[in-house]
Description:
Layout: H1 2-30, H2 40-48, H3 51-73, H4 76-82, H5 85-98, H6 104-121
Amino acid sequence: MKNFQYTSVLVSILIGSLAQILLKQGTKHIGPLAFSFENIGSLLLRIFSQPLVVLGLALYGVSFVIWIFAISKLEISVAYPMLSVGFIVNAVAAYYLLGESMSLYKLLGIFFIILGTFLITSKIS
C-alpha cells in the first residue's frame, strides 16, 4: 500500500509540473504583463482567456486532489519533502521543452535534492 501512496505523490508532482510548463507556455501567448489596479480587469481577462493557462490551472486542480489523497495516507514529514522532486522535473522539462539552460549549479542542486529526498523517504529511522 505504501508504494501506491508514494506513487500518488509522484503523480501529483508530475501533473503539477506539467501545469507549470503549460502556464509558462500560456504566458508566451498572453504577452507582457504589467500589473496595476487600473488594468486588473483586462489583465485577468487576458490571463483566463488563454487556453494553456486554463488547462494548466485545471491540471493544478487535479494535482491538488491527488495530493490530498496522498497526504491523507502518508506522514506529511515524508510526503512534503517529496515535493522537491518537482524542482527536478521542472528543471529537466524546462531544459528539453522550453530551451532553458542547465548549468553545473543546477545539476548540483538536482543531485542534492535527489539525495535529500532519498534520505527523508528511506526506511532508515
